[in-house]
Design a protein that fits this description.
Number of helices: 18
Helix content: 55-70%
Structural class: mainly alpha
CATH class of the largest domain: Mainly Alpha
Number of domains: 2
Strand content: under 5%
Shape: globular
CATH superfamily of the largest domain: Hypothetical protein af1432
Low-confidence stretches: none
Radius of gyration: 21 Å
CATH architecture of the largest domain: Orthogonal Bundle
Length: 379
Amino acid sequence: MQKKSIRNLSKFAVPLKSRGRFFKEKKTDLRNDFQRDRDRIIHSTAFRRLKHKTQVFVNTSGDHFRTRITHSLEVSQIARTLSKFFNLNEDLSETLSLAHDLGHTPFGHAGEEALNYCMKDYGGFDHNIQTLRIITILENRYYEFKGLNLSIETLDGLIKHNGPVKDLTKLNKILGNNFFKRKINFALSSSLEAQIASISDDIAYNSHDLEDGLKSNLFNLNHLKDIPMLNEIILKHTKKLQNHSIDLVIRQIIREVINAMVSDVINTTKKNIKLYKIKSLSDIYKTKKQLVAFSKSMQKFDKKIKSFLKQKMYFHKSVNSNTNYGKKVLTKLFLQIKKNPKKYINIKKYSNSNTERIICDYIAGMTDRYAINLYNQIK
């Protein structure tokens, strides 16, 4: 079955047989290398914790709003759709999608800001780099090595979630110099599978944050009518309100937004592959252009959606109130734990790190509710 899959993959796909891992392991006939990577992510403690971590709304604020885990699952679904269309390595795209938010703190980006401030004299904090710490150091599930020992291709895709890495300063400060032992070429572009996971992240949080914002009544459909393309979709579906609930109409609108963005990515990517004369996987790594992308018109739409959500949702006073509370909680926890780390943390679990980085790892791994409960105990 796997031989057939290898034969059928596009010439642009990352092969199902990996270039290797940091630590050698026995192969299995049951799963390819990237299916093993995906399964290791799903079985990790860090992945389970995402179910109680903020996407936009603090996890304790409602049962139906998205959390980091539901967002990651939605990203993976979109990524598999795109990978399947281009006949790429779907397992790699899924793995990258499921893993991309493992390093997020409690309370979303507000928590990240707080931890970065607390760590300003100790190398700082970055959720993308924290994801790398989790999968290479902090997850401890095997006798033979620390971390999950994921494939080189998966590591490469996670490192380059936002494209080639031009400045290694923060990476070196947080992980250590030459942590990846020259196995990663930071200057090369990422695989199409990694680019797909990245743009699927954009599609998912744009559309689903719109849905959560509408359902939470932070804004309504009338507020969205000034956004081109979205206006046309809304006008078409609001005619259904006479016979259907507003919740159902909103779901249909969001479905159509996702479909429009996915279709745009497919058409633009096909054009880019032709425009930049991409003939092989090697060409993909060497090109300086992001091949998986939105068209210019969709880029404008993407920017308008992000701007709208920032104004109406992320900076809304009720959301801001909760996220500011999150900053307060994490800052207090950091300062309190620093006074007596051994009271709260099993230091032996965190080898080869300074005290501040150990505290940072501990807090970053918390769920929203765990952080709140601990804060209430010590304040």
